[in-house]
Predict the 3D structure of the following.
Amino acid sequence: MKKIRQISLALGSAAVLGIMGVANAQDLVVVSWGGAYTASQQKAYHEPFMANNPGVNIINDDSAADGISKLRAMNEAGNVTWALVDAVASDAIILCEEGLAEPIDHDAMLAPAPDGTPASEDFGDLVVSECFIPQIVYSTTFGYRTDLVKEPPTSIKDVFDLGKIPGKRALEKRPIGNLEWALIADGVDPDQVYDVLDTEEGVDRAFAKLDTIRDEVIWWEKGAQTPQLLADGEVVIGSTYNGRLFSVIEEEKQPIAMLWDWQVFDLDGWIIPVGGPHREIVEEYLRFATDTQRLADQAKFISYGPARKSSAPLVGKHASLGIDMSPHMPTDPANAKNTLLYNYVWWADRKDDLTERFNAWLAQ
Amino acid sequence: MNTSATYSEIVKTADGIPLKVSLAKAQRKSKIRGMLLVLPLFAFILLTFFVPIFDMLFRSIENQLVPEIMQNSSKLLVNWDDQSGELPPEEVFAAAKLDFEKGHAERTILRVGRRLNYEVPGFASLFRKTARRAKDFEPPFTEAFIERDKRWGEIDTWKLIKRESGAFTISYYFAALDLSYAPDGSIGIKGETQRIYLKLFWRTLALSGLITFLCLILAYPIAHLLSTLPLRISNLLMIMVLLPFWTSLLVRTTSWIALLQQEGVINDLLVGLGLITDDGRLAMIHNAAGTIIAMTHILLPFMVLPLYSIMKTIPPSYMRAAKNLGATPMVAFIRVYFPNTVSGIGAGCILVFIISIGYYITPALVGGTDGTLISNFIAYHMSVSLNWGLAAALGVILLVIVLMLYYLYDRVVGIDKMKFA
């Protein structure tokens, strides 16, 4: 059966390749999220790299959202065509544990900071998996309509307070982040959120808190939904990725403002697929594209924080808007008074059963 | 000269080959040519339809992972009596140490952890924690394992590994049917807070049935109109039916969002006309209503076209004759026109129902919480949780339901009566 599957998948992908025309020897397929994010990588990493290496042609593939499932299918078929994949940290952990991503010696492969600090130290805690090279710190946080709220929200408690902020709110359709916020809003000490969630009563308590706003929530699945819902006035407040809010506030000039309280930090970075092509070029690319200057450069095009400590002082102005980017970074001290780094290891264990419970709760 | 001999001689072609043989050869050639023409299609269907479906059927019971990676310990666990109330013997722990060491080196052991985490939360971290240190374990291994994590000292841990160490498993089906499956093999119904899939199967069937019904009552008059109006007007109408059909699915779905949302066109209009108050704006999207409206619109052409093609073949003289014989328009419709359209109704309904039962983009965008369908969860398990076994089990159950309905339809209406044109 396995044989048949491999043969049929190999034939299938061979047919697809045949249609697309076989890639050149130096074509590098880099998988990322598309839109403004891929554009920022194109400007900050790909273009300078291709200018230095005329023989290499980087091809962007925007399928990172289905990255883990597609990679597993390619791996089963024994035909991995992706050279490099952009993945969020939790997916990188899964890919590493499934044996689909290559383990990396960060210090040997990546450039040290300008002052000689080894890469692993420069990235620090953000190296959450031995297969993961962090690029950016982003956060899931709230934006609200300045013209539709009577008084601006100041804390995560206000999101759960229908009296203070009446109207619809948008939350992500998954338990991660929402359960933590519910408990913090319910008065749990933020340092103990995961201890509380470890108990059955703690989970009940989080769901009970979510119950209080349940009828007023629109659940989103794609990052673009909340900015649209806010712009349409469908919701008065909603969570999404901070970069999305930046563009709707600064580029589209919508009457929206940020609520940074208890923003949930998450990481995004590179993994090298096991069995992927052009390993040498990929390593050369990674050494270049994840150095201190390149990570700082990306912040000119999108408001996500560079993952290296040494990049922070180099963050400058937005490339086309000309505004100072530091105040828009989730890592800026003014924004990062209360932050939560979500616990990857804890969620790796509990994602299956709590997602099931979350969905059952939604379906009630 | 013997003329009779000439007649009994075999008829031959100009180049001396018996005609029969030559004919057979020519026919064989054209048969082979015919076969060759069909071959690409056959290979295509085999490769893109049958193989994936059987692969999916197989994945829902496949469990090679555990016995393959925990090779040594799973073999020994077979002999362990899990009812004895005692932990497996030391040799099982020793074998598990080997499995963990090898699996860590080959980077495969954590797949087992993730696989077992579907059954009991916590196995992912248990395996992660153990794999990192397994190579340093010293005998006695029983103690070494328990020292690393006390869960190795619990009988249920080993019961689960024993249960899932066969080459096949039924656990995905239990999960897909909201049944709990304890490590010792006892089966029960899941708690209220974890039950979800049965509800979703039911909702998927109910909403698909409703959408099919709505499509039918909307499409029937349109199709009738199309088939009776003069060609010039009916062509124009036909284009109006087909135009949305040719438009991108996402465009149509997002336009429904713009129309139906609370700050959207329809609500604005109703508020402007004073029919509803500004606070009483209707919630028509991000719920089941949104799914029904958007999907009915999107699937309507699939109902109109089969109905139209059947109605086109009904001669107008039938109705005239019925009326001539004294039937009222209502009776003429019920006894003459309607029975003639049943085959088109059957074709349209089956088409719309089967498409809507597997629909997923539209419900994902406009369905909110009570308008999402089982296919949304299959997609979730395919691309987010990577639990392909459960996705496959849900898919197989859906397939069985469709086949059962198809069978029922065949018994009640008859598949041979279905006509698309």
About this structure: The radius of gyration of chain A is 21 Å.
